[in-house]
Amino acid sequence: MNDLTDLASKGGGHTSVGFWVVMAFIVLVGLPLTLWRLRRGGPGPAMNWIPRSMRGRANRRYREHGWQEPFDDNGDRNPDRSQL
């Protein structure tokens, strides 16, 4: 039984080093990548069909976030957005 206890205690230090390596990777690579992808501007999220009465509200929401508006003044899909 002592052999198993000694083996478990010796491996404990390597586990914590591995944990900190993974955490450092997440902070140094994952966080900047996430922030880069969340930047403002560009076309914004994909827009599926929504009722014509709600299209003005969708345009306001996209404008607030700095994204390209999905619908034109008539409520039709913005042709410039479809080409992106």
Describe the protein's architecture and organization:
With 84 residues, the protein is mainly alpha-helical. It has helices at residues 2-37, 55-64, 79-82. The chain is rod-shaped, with a radius of gyration of 25 Å. The protein starts with a helix and ends with a helix. The relative contact order is 0.09.
Question: What characteristics describe this protein?
Answer:
84 residues; mainly alpha; 3 helices; 60% helix
Summarize the SSE layout with pairings.
Blueprint: H1 2-37, H2 55-64, H3 79-82
Could you give a quick summary of the protein structure above?
With 84 residues, this protein is an all-alpha fold.
The major β-sheet equals: none
Strand content: under 5%
Shape: rod-shaped
Which structural class is indicated by helix and strand composition?
A: mainly alpha
Report the mean per-residue pLDDT as an integer: 78
Oligomer: single chain
State the distance separating the first and last CA atoms.
66 Å
Instruction: Give me the number of helical elements.
Output: 3
- Give the low-confidence spans: none
Order of helices and strands: HHH
Q: Give me the Rg, rounded.
A: 25 Å
Total strand segments: 0
Report helical residue fraction: 55-70%
